[in-house]
Automatic annotation (TrEMBL):
One protein family per Pfam: ADK
UniProt GO molecular function: AMP kinase activity
Source species of the chain: Bombilactobacillus thymidiniphilus
Primary role: Catalyzes the reversible transfer of the terminal phosphate group between ATP and AMP. Plays an important role in cellular energy homeostasis and in adenine nucleotide metabolism.
Subcellular location: Cytoplasm
Oligomer status and interactors: Monomer.
E.C. no: 2.7.4.3
UniProt family annotation: Belongs to the adenylate kinase family.
Keywords associated with the record: ATP-binding, Cytoplasm, Kinase, Metal-binding, Nucleotide biosynthesis, Nucleotide-binding, Transferase, Zinc
Taxonomic lineage: Bacteria, Bacillati, Bacillota, Bacilli, Lactobacillales
Description of its domains: Consists of three domains, a large central CORE domain and two small peripheral domains, NMPbind and LID, which undergo movements during catalysis. The LID domain closes over the site of phosphoryl transfer upon ATP binding. Assembling and dissambling the active center during each catalytic cycle provides an effective means to prevent ATP hydrolysis. Some bacteria have evolved a zinc-coordinating structure that stabilizes the LID domain.
SUPFAM superfamilies hit by this protein: P-loop containing nucleoside triphosphate hydrolases
Gene3D superfamilies per record: P-loop containing nucleotide triphosphate hydrolases
Protein name per its UniProtKB record: Adenylate kinase
KW Magnesium (keyword) present: no
Length: 218
């Protein structure tokens, strides 16, 4: 079984990836891990990618595509199937993946999109705040202070938010991801393999819905 996992930041994609791996023993391939592994092993493509990364440049699509092909051609993938996470990131990469699968005699069985309204994700992602005095971290929804406005650890009343956690920054990051994901969603919807899962549910219910889809193709 070969999968691709999609979802906006904060949608719970990482948690669902772990659950899928635990049940189906599929090979989880994230772009970051793939780059690190190829560079550590000093494969020809890994060295090519390292040349760009060392200069602080983005790795071009054609190098990323080569890296994906190298990884998907390995024995563990042939035996257990793969779950791609973070690739493809654009339409050209999606078309390249189709060609890679064809070249390797593989097939993408399903694209799982953990779908959560961006407005809900803004609340999830911008809820973190930190005690200015001792650095204790809280979240207004998931882990508030026991007494409003008072740090549990040191009793301070001063808190701050990191730039990355501020609502406007989070909204911008989500908008970029929505723009990037929309053509991919359309592409895989036309292909008939896209499955949108409601990510605004309890974690176990989200996985139950994912599992229902996977059971049909496993």
């Amino acid at each position: 079984m070969n999968l691709m996992l999609m979802g906006l930041p904060g949608a719970g994609k990482g948690t669902q990836a772990e659950k899928i791996v635990d049940k189906y023993h599929i090979i989880h391939i994230s772009t970051g891990d793939m780059f690190r592994e190829a560079m550590a092993n000093e494969t020809p493509v890994g060295l090519k990618a390292k040349g760009f990364i060392d200069k602080g440049e983005l790795v071009p699509d054609e190098v990323t595509n080569e890296l994906v092909k190298e990884r998907l051609g390995q024995d563990d993938v042939k035996q257990n199937g793969y779950m791609l996470d973070g690739f493809p990131r654009n339409l050209e990469q999606a078309k390249a993946l189709a060609q890679i699968n064809a070249d390797l005699g593989l097939k993408l069985d399903a694209v799982i999109d953990i779908d959560v309204d961006p407005a809900i994700l803004v609340e999830r992602l911008s809820g973190r705040f930190i005690c200015k005095n001792c650095g204790a971290t809280y979240h207004k929804l998931n882990h508030p202070t026991k007494v409003a406005g008072v740090c549990d650890r040191c009793g301070s009343h001063e808190f701050y938010q990191r730039e990355d956690d501020k609502p406007e920054t989070v909204k911008n990051r989500l908008a970029v991801n929505v723009k990037m994901n929309t053509p991919l969603i359309d592409f895989y919807q036309k292909d008939g393999i896209l499955h949108r899962i409601d990510g605004d549910q309890a974690i176990d219910q989200v996985f139950a819905d994912v599992d229902t889809v996977l059971n049909k193709i496993y």
